[in-house]
Amino acid sequence: MWQHQPDFYLYWKDAAKDSQCDVADQYKSGHNSEDSWKDVENTTIERFQATRIKTNEFKLLLLVLLPVVVYILGQILFDIIGVSFADYAMQLLSSSANIDFAESSIAAAQLWGSASLIYLVVSIGLIGYVFRFLGKNVKGKALYPFWGIASFLIVIGVSHLLWVDESRRPLSMIFYLTFESLKASSLMQSNSLDSIDKLLDVINVLSVVIPSLFCAFMPSVLITPRGGWTDDMLVSRIKSGRKFCACSSVFLVVGILHMFAWMRLSFLVLGRPELSQLASGIVFYWAFVFSTMIATLYACIMLTLDGHRESLEASRRSSSATGPHLLSELGIAFDGKALVKQVVIVFAPVISALAVTTTEVLLESGI
Question: What is the domain count for the chain?
Fold first, then answer.
């Protein structure tokens, strides 16, 4: 009846034999086989066992609010200083009937298409990364608070996005200036404009979803691991937190490039390339907002982990050999390499804005 065993049966049978051989080798080398089996069992259970968030660690979830507050302040200030931009954009659109597009606008449209492709690819990759990041730090029921916070931020963010669109806030004119310019020109056909409209809807939603995931999942790297805090675990979390901030910085850099390419297209379609300075000013504003958000994320992670480092030193569990390394990784002790990493991660959006605007000036001057 059982002439052919299933593949998974043979796999587990071979695995059991390998485990028995390992235990036998340990027994020969002087280790107790029963203790070895217990170690293997405990390791397996610990790997899949749920993480518990300590009562005093729930307050760490409030750190989510800090980068969100920075973004809200950025929105409020842009509503104030962006009114003149919105009024000027409306004047440009009112005098832009039946525009004859120039050859330069074709190249600008292709550049925006490339920026959109990069934005979509990076966004999809980062969605997978942030969920993997969360699953690496917490497991089981401890995931629920982070999922709940992410869902709440996404709902609020999408609702705000719809309100900005319907009420024609200054932020929405970044979209409408270029889109209405394309409608008034013969550069795009109606079916192409419909596709662009849908593509921008996807990009706008991703611009809410991904920052919400980064903000919501950030505190997971600060939750006490099941094995407690050790030097090795602390170094691992520091590197993981820095990588997390670097990935968020990459997304915001791509967002800056896409914003500049989209706004530049409108000025070339309108035949007003000199107005690229207006796009540069708006891009620089949001670049500084994004850099401030990253700085907030980075500070939350490193300052909290530094508190765990001090606790380790107080309990004399931290060795003197790893102490200086931890200080340099946290950015507390001076280390040129670590300092450069921190500056690049935090100011990457500003650096990218400076790069694209400088390139635009050089191209206009014919250099």
Answer: 1
